[in-house]
Design goal:
single chain, mainly beta, 7-stranded mixed β-sheet, 54% strand, globular
Length: 114
């Protein structure tokens, strides 16, 4: 599975952004997909996930401003981020687990200015 993330950029605090992750296979065939982020000097952490069934999950710390979704016809997963904060500055990665294998996209940088 190949994943291509895009949509990052420089955004002012309080703004919104939608990231996209295009998969090389039908997303409905992928057991698990998720968005992770890694800020400078910190570990990569889970932001949101979506199962092949469409069920979504968010860590408690990510509930409220993040929305994960999927467009099955376009084999694309999205992450909408509202009310961006400087602390959201990070490289955002899309991830998938399929057939027991773990796949990562190349990451897209989100920079939030105060």
């Amino acid at each position: 599975v190949q994943l291509q993330a895009s949509g990052g950029g420089l955004v002012q605090a309080g703004g919104s952004l939608t990231l996209s992750c295009v998969a090389s296979v039908p997303v409905t065939s992928i057991a698990y997909m998720g968005w992770y982020r890694q800020a400078p000097g910190l570990e990569r952490t889970l932001v949101a996930s979506i199962l092949s069934s469409g069920r979504t999950r968010y860590p408690d710390s990510m509930k409220g401003r993040f929305t994960i979704s999927r467009d099955d016809a376009k084999n694309t997963m999205f992450l909408q981020i509202n009310n961006l904060e400087p602390e959201d500055t990070a490289v955002y990665y899309c991830n998938s687990i399929s057939g027991g294998n773990n796949y990562w996209g190349q990451g897209t940088l989100v920079t939030v200015s105060s």
